[in-house]
Amino acid sequence: MKKYLVSFIVILFLSAPVQAKDSCSTVLCMAGMLQGSGVVSGCKGFVQDYFDIILFNSHGGISLNKTFKARGQFLGQCTSAGNWPDMINNKYGRQLGL
Fold first, then answer.
1. 70-94 pLDDT, tens digit each
2. What pLDDT does residue 21 have?
3. Rounded to whole angstroms, how far apart are CA atoms 41 and 59?
4. pTM
5. Which domain of life is it from (predicted)?
6. Where does the pLDDT of residue 6 fall: very low under 50, low under 70, confident under 90, or very high at 90 and above?
7. Cα–Cα distance for residue pair 65/85, rounded to 1 Å
């Protein structure tokens, strides 16, 4: 019986929904970067979420244009951020990291 219970818990854990990345927190953190604050405490993960978005072309190389567009779409999910997503993406959208 214990074997089945452990299996059930493992399956339940593996099938749990994945947390969506928080675009508004990313915008907030990166707006601070844009204003010269650098990556402040508590923002490293949100900034990394942005830079983890990397798309490739059909030959397997990194496509900076596709990456730029995908990052912009991610930031654009924060509808209350005004022009910040565009300003952030224009500065950092084609960079592969800090």
1. 999 999 999 999 999 999 999 999 9
2. 84
3. 38
4. 0.76
5. Bacteria
6. very low
7. 16
3 in any annotated domain:
no
Phi/psi of residue 80, each to 5°?
-95, 10
Residue ranges making up the domain that contains 39:
20-92
H-assigned helices in 1-98: 2-14, 23-34, 44-51, 64-76, 84-92
Q: Are 95 and 51 in contact (CB under 8 A)?
A: yes
Q: Is residue 8 domain-resident?
A: no
pLDDT in tens, 18-47: 445 889 999 999 999 988 888 888 899 999
User: What pairs with residue 62 in β-bridges?
Assistant: 56
Domain count, the chain: 1
| 77 within domain boundaries | yes
**DSSP assignments along 49-61, one per residue:** HHHT---B-TTSS
Residue 90: what pLDDT?
97
